[in-house]
Specification:
Helix 1 packs antiparallel against helix 3, helix 2 packs antiparallel against helix 3 and helix 3 runs antiparallel to helix 4. It is extended, with a radius of gyration of 27 Å. Strands 1-2-3-5-4 form a 5-stranded mixed β-sheet. With 245 residues, the chain is of the alpha+beta class. The protein starts with a helix and ends with a strand. Strand 1, helix 6 and strand 2 form a beta-alpha-beta unit. The chain is built from 7 helices and 5 strands; from the N terminus they run H-H-H-H-H-E-H-E-E-H-E-E.
Length: 245
């Protein structure tokens, strides 16, 4: 038990002493005054300890977010360096067709990154952008049919974002690690004006398909995002969210 929790624990237990004293000497006026002062002191200690504990948790959360941001930035920097090296290599070998082809590939990747950043839900955007820092066994790809901002749709965007993160995380833990090609999970999002459609397509193997299906059902329980077809998560699942009235 750390010092903050210990102080709260001791403050709570100390209240028992004046209570017992009041039971023994119920008619003592000075004891009533002492009890009130004791309760006030214990409450002050408890409140201060709560504030310190909150500040400590906040500091840990900020540090965790900063560390995750640094890991994500380092991965992106590594990708940029690789891209520059490839372009530089094609340029030195005087292969303009290959250079143009690779630049188009980078442009498509940047367009996808831009679409992801416009999804509107910070938790979902951060999770997708930092996914590569979580695992090396699963690659996440995102296909957004058009510019999509979940916060601008008549939907419970935060609930949908939480469900999507939960399902992606379930796949991350369920995929079978291997020494060959990395498994690929593709998330497809599309808004048709009335419904948000989401599909997960997996290229890879699972440790236990039934267990993953049960976890997905649990993630969708009571959520805005509902199942259309989740019978075969080994291949594809389809979900939808209805427009709110």
């Amino acid at each position: 038990m750390d010092r903050i929790k210990s102080a709260k624990h001791n403050a709570a237990i100390s209240i028992m002493l004046p209570i017992v004293a009041m039971l023994v000497w119920p008619s003592s006026v000075w004891l009533h005054v002492l009890v009130m002062l004791w309760f006030t002191a214990a409450a002050i200690i408890w409140i201060r300890s709560e504030r310190r504990e909150h500040a400590k948790q906040l500091a840990l959360t900020i540090h965790s977010l900063q560390a995750a941001g640094m890991r994500t930035l380092n991965h992106h920097r590594h990708d940029w360096m690789n891209d520059l090296q490839v372009i530089y290599g094609y340029t030195r070998m005087q292969k303009p067709d290959k250079t143009v082809e690779y630049v188009e590939k980078i442009r498509a990747k940047m367009l996808t990154e831009s679409q992801i950043s416009k999804l509107g839900e910070p938790a979902l955007v951060s999770y997708i952008q930092g996914f590569r820092t979580l695992t090396s066994c699963l690659e996440l790809r995102v296909d957004i049919e058009q510019d999509l901002n979940l916060n601008e749709l008549p939907l419970a965007s935060r609930e949908i974002a939480e469900a999507l993160i939960g399902i992606i995380n379930s796949y991350r833990l369920a995929v079978k690690p291997g020494f060959g090609e990395v498994a690929v999970l593709t998330l497809v999002l599309d808004w048709d004006g009335q419904q948000l459609h989401a599909a997960f397509e997996l290229e890879g193997e699972l440790l236990d398909e039934q267990q993953l299906k049960d976890q997905i059902k649990q993630q969708l329980k009571g959520a805005t995002l509902q199942a259309v077809d989740i019978e075969h998560p080994q291949e594809e699942i389809r979900l939808k969210a209805e427009k709110r009235a």
